[in-house]
Amino acid sequence: MTETQQQNSKPEPEEVKKKKKSWWRIARWFLIPILLVLALTGGMVAGYVVLGKQDIGSVWQWSTWKHVYDLVFAP
């Protein structure tokens, strides 16, 4: 092999960094929203069930959160 063929066969460090960076960018697009949803769900359960001492089944009902909203933003 000639010297130019050896140089062409090796990936450049910039290309390797771009591949790693693009993978992490894609992972963040999926990972961050999933973590936000998990944090919201965990906070709802912890606040309503643990602190409020209510049934876990009512956490998922729309009427429960409408009632909480009405209590917080009542005129």
Question: Which descriptors apply to this entry?
Answer:
elongated, 3 helices, mainly alpha, 75 residues
Give a quick summary of the entry.
The chain is mainly α and 75 residues long.
The biggest sheet, with number of strands, parallel, antiparallel or mixed sense and barrel status, is: none
| Mean pLDDT figure | 81
Q: How much strand content do the residues show? A: under 5%
The ordered string of helix (H) and strand (E) elements is HHH
Distance between the termini: 81 Å
Helix percentage: over 70%
Number of helices: 3
Assembly category? single chain
Low-confidence stretches: none
* Cα Rg: 25 Å
The general outline is elongated
Going by helix content, strand content and strand pairing, the class is: mainly alpha
Total beta-strand segments: 0
Describe the structure.
The protein is mostly helical. Helix content is 76%, strand content 0%. The protein contains three helices and no strands.
Explain the layout of strands and helices.
Layout: H1 3-9, H2 13-51, H3 62-72
